[in-house]
Amino acid sequence: MNPPHNKDKNGYLFKKLPKHGLSFVMWGMKLKLKKQEGQVMVLSVLMLGGILLGVSAFAGLLMVYQIRQANDALSSTKAFFAADAGIEWETYNRYKASSTPADLPVFSNGASVTSSFNCVDGECIIRAKGFSGRAVRALEIILSQ
Questions:
Q1: Against a cut of 0.70, is the pTM above it?
Q2: Which of 79, 86, 93, 124 is a plausible cystine mate for 128, CB 3.0–4.6 Å?
Q3: Domain boundaries along the sequence of the chain
């Protein structure tokens, strides 16, 4: 049993394909595309555009994380050396300075430091914390007498 064929206004035979919903012209044994709506093209362009947008947004996010990580490494280094300067400052004030201790060091790179000196049972502990940006680094020295 042959599928039903219909004629259009020009007298061409066509059949509607149920799966795809596309009309094809029957001309002998050849099937020619009669009319294309363009919906598939629009959807494919939108999908490709969405995929490219998603990929580029993800790549941009990775770049932001890498830049932030590089900046954090710089801040971490500044904080470490500020803590080291705090240890040196505290050591100098306790063992070499006169009776009035010097002021805490001021850094030109924006870092800052806090330090402490405690002696308990013959052991002296010097602690210093260096701050730069979001980074905080701490050093500790234990001196035995």
A1: no
A2: 86
A3: 6-36, 40-144
